[in-house]
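Give me structure tokens for this 305-residue protein.
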Amino acid sequence: MSAQDGRNGFQAPVTAAASAASGPAVLHASVVRGRGNRRRMLVGLVVAAVALAVIAVAGRLLEPVAMATDFAAKNLQPSIAHPFGTDWMGRDMLARTLAGLSTSIFVGLLAAGASSLIALALACLAVLGGPRADAAVSWLVDLVMGLPHIVLLVLISYALGKGFWGVTVGVALTHWPSLTRVLRAEILQLREQPFLSVSRVLGVSRHRIALDHLVPYVLPQFLVGLILLFPHAILHEASITFLGFGLSPDHPAVGVILSESMRYLSAGYWWLAIFPGASLVATVGLFDRIGALARRLVDARTVQE
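Here you go.
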């Protein structure tokens, strides 16, 4: 064997050993990175959820302050005493904004929760109810999605007398189609599994199959969809309230605040609209952030990114 061959023969085991050693190191680094990403996502999700909880609780506690009038302090610009200024009746705009956001969050929770349950029930019915039920659910989804969203929401709210329950029911009845499609697609994939065929052959009822197998399977997608419905519900509540088809003017709602502030912007009272509008956008952004983080936590592939 030549010196060159000896060198080649010596280098091969070293290269193989290096390759064998690098594999576990790379895998370990990937696992550590994945855990770090998951930890950061969880921290971000908790921080956003706590911020929303603080807004909701503070708004409820500040409702008496939000309704209190002081004509001696009307139309004051933002200051230390009144960070968001005061309106034409001397009401503190910070307290009114927080109270309005608390109302919007409460409406969003009720509406999104009801809408997501409707989506889950229709998705299970479409998959387990046979071809006719599937066709009926698909037709209903296409019908609702084909109608102008805000027009349908306004009509339902107006038909129910507007107010708190009119808005809540209207939002709940118009936000389920997209989630229904997602859950139906997930359940269709599960329906092809052998254990469901065995359950049907053994005589297990459709109701029991849905509770024992379908609902646990789509629970992660259901929770993510529920969270992502919140920002849409809040924005649409504020929109129809702004148009006069939502909450009544005696409620400290953000839509009411923005609608009333339009009459005073030309007089230079810019803070009446800027701060409530920016706070609404920030609240919606927090909900959207929670939904995005929850979706990434559910999908194991994105955690490694």
